[in-house]
Amino acid sequence: MNFAAGIRDGIPICLGYIAVSFTFGIMCKNAGISTWQAVLISASNLTSAGQFAGLSLIASAASYVEMAFTQFIINLRYCLMSCALSQKLDTKSPFFHRFFISYGVTDEIFGVSIGRSGKLSPWYSYGCILVSAFGWVFGTFLGIVSGNVLPARAISALSVALYGMFIAVIVPPARVNKIIAGIVIISMVCSLIFQYAPLLSRISSGFRIIILTILIAGAAAYFFPVKDKEDSNES
């Protein structure tokens, strides 16, 4: 029953993942990555932001150190999500359940899991992860296979979908929150400076991501901390 409920709640995530990972497959094709390599990346590293950043580093022949630091910084938020989910799981759940569930802690799966009433069953998580991961891997496969069949102009046009995805993620919260809008603008300006400034432009793309992420996110967290609901009620 819990497994079936997890599959049911994971179907919308699966459909969304197919659309996004399709673009990832197209990008893998453009970067010269084979079909089985692209599928392996999506199956073993279930994170959209980490995969897209990692792919750009692979394409630019970045070092393993850059790759490791970039993935660490980008995926650090999953540690917080995992801590929250661990409190929702039954305290009697064996360690191996927690170990396997950690594979599928993504933003979307975390959202539906943390919003489920009562204690979280491992089998619910398995159902949700199974169908969601399938959508991500299958979308990657479709993308890179289409890249092998479609003409170059079509592939170039489909590659633009990635930027549409990023805009769709950034614009809604930026319209509601002026602080987020300001941080987005600052990030764009700083990225532009790093791209064209004489000395800063020599820094590799991987370390640019690391430096800007730490500096901008750290400054935003320090100057504009997110208040807990209890603190906001007291104030």
Tell me the layout of helices and strands:
Blueprint: H1 2-30, H2 35-44, H3 48-59, H4 64-74, H5 77-88, H6 95-101, H7 107-114, H8 122-149, H9 152-159, H10 161-176, H11 178-196, H12 205-223, H13 229-234
3D structure, described in words:
This protein is mainly α and 235 residues long. The protein has 13 helices and no strands. The protein has helices spanning 2-30, 35-44, 48-59, 64-74, 77-88, 95-101, 107-114, 122-149, 152-159, 161-176, 178-196, 205-223, 229-234. It starts with a helix and ends with a helix.
Label this structure with key terms.
13 helices; 0% strand; 235 residues; mainly alpha
Euclidean distance between termini CA atoms: 44 Å
- Strand segment tally: 0
Pattern of helices and strands? HHHHHHHHHHHHH
Look at the structure and give the mean pLDDT: 82
Give helix % range. over 70%
**Shape summary:** globular
In terms of DSSP E residues, the strand content is: under 5%
> What is the tally of helical segments?
13
In this structure, how is the largest beta sheet organized?
A: none
Low-confidence stretches: none
Cα-atom radius of gyration: 19 Å
Class by SSE composition: mainly alpha
